[in-house]
Structures are given as structure tokens and as C-alpha cells.
Amino acid sequence: MTSPEGWQQWACDADRLAALAEFAAGAGHEINNPLATIIGRAQQLLREESDPRRRQSLAIIAAQAYRIRDMIGDVMLFARPPQPEMRPVSLPQTLRGVIDRLAADLAAARCRVEFPPGDAADLPPREDILVLADPAQFAVVASELLRNAAQALQPAGGVIRVDFSADERFAQWAVIDHGKGFTDHERRHAFDPFFSGRQAGRGLGFGLCKAARIVDLHGGSIAIESAEGGPTVVTVRWPRQL
């Protein structure tokens, strides 16, 4: 699904992500300390203030401080995510479960997912591919890739295709959309924290970055093949349960 050049790019991206994670962890810690003081003081002043206009201003300060705190939480989750709790996971069954859980959101975005029919229980044994994964973290990766594809198809919506295959060591699955593609610059920086691809119709933020970190923690790799105008193929290689 993805060329050798795409996987070579992932090796460079993984090194850059590790360096960014170390920076993010340190920066997040340093920002959190003064932020906690700001939140505490804003809450105290809000409790003591009786003037409605001043209370409104203090409430805005507190709300924005909480917003920063939540953003720092995302940074720390990217920088130091929980260690995965590995177990054998059915690739087709888990992908189907994520698609079903996102069904309402995808329908609201006028998107339809094409996926090999039937759950893992209905597939021949050779097709029930087992991967070694933390089920919750695997679901986060699949959810982020589907949401990213849905964003690219806005405002008209469209079809998202999910394909999968396997070799002896790795399962490989891809999310494919025919929405607005990535420029070369956007593709190179798609896994960077807070990089925004909104010009390509993709509000990337932390979604792909978080997915890439989880894939890396599982010993896998992720690559993007795209051009302006699409299609875009995001392919994940994930270690199999042998």
C-alpha cells in the first residue's frame, strides 16, 4: 500500500517525534506550575468579587486558563503516553468496532465507510488477523485516522475506504479518502504536534501526532501518501501476534 520511500520517511518522523516528545514533556511541566497559580488566583478572586462585569472578566480568565491546562494535558499525553497493555487483538473485528462507534459522527459528516463485510467471527480463520496491541490505544489510532479522512471530505462528504492485509510479521491497514490531499509541506509535517493542515481541509492538531506516537510505542510505523487533490492513503504497519 505504501512505497519504501514512505517507510523511510516514517523512520525520520519517528526520530523527530521522540525529540519533540522530550521537549513537550519539559515545556508542559514548566507551563503547568505558573498556570496552576493563575487558575487558583482567578478562582479566589471570582469567589470574592461581587461586581458583575468584573466577575464576567474573571470567569473568562479562568475558562481560558482551564483551556490551556487541557491543551497541556494533550501535550503530556503525547510526550509520555501510558505504557501499552499488550494482548492479542483481532484486526478486522477491532476496526469494525471503531467504525460502528463512529457511525453517528460519520453519518453527520455525510461520510460512508467501505470495509470488508462481516465481523471477524464471520471470516475464514486465515483472515482473522491478530495483532499485538493495547485495545484502547489501537482504537484511538483508528478513530483519529477516520476522523482525519472525514474532515478532508468536507463539506460534501463522501466515501472512506478501509483496507487491510498481512505478511508473516506485520499486519497492514490503510484509511483511504478522495478528499483534499496534502501538499508536500503538509505531508512532511503532518505528525508534528499542533501542525494545522486546515488549508488541506484537515484540522490536524494533535490527532495524527497522537496516533503516530501510539503506533511507534507498539513497534509499528505509519506513512502518508498523498498529493493535492487526493487521494490520500494513510497506512499503518502493526506487529502481528505470532
From TrEMBL:
Alphabetic keyword roster: ATP-binding, Kinase, Nucleotide-binding, Phosphoprotein, Transferase, Two-component regulatory system
Domain named Histidine kinase: residues: 26-242
Root EC class: transferase
A single MF term (Gene Ontology): phosphorelay sensor kinase activity
Keyword Transferase: yes
Reaction it catalyzes: ATP + protein L-histidine = ADP + protein N-phospho-L-histidine
SMART domains assigned to the protein according to its UniProt record, in alphabetical order: HATPase_c, HisKA
EC number assigned by the record: 2.7.13.3
PROSITE patterns: HIS_KIN
Domain of life: Bacteria
Protein name in UniProt: histidine kinase
Organism taxonomic ancestry: Bacteria, Pseudomonadati, Planctomycetota, Planctomycetia, Planctomycetales
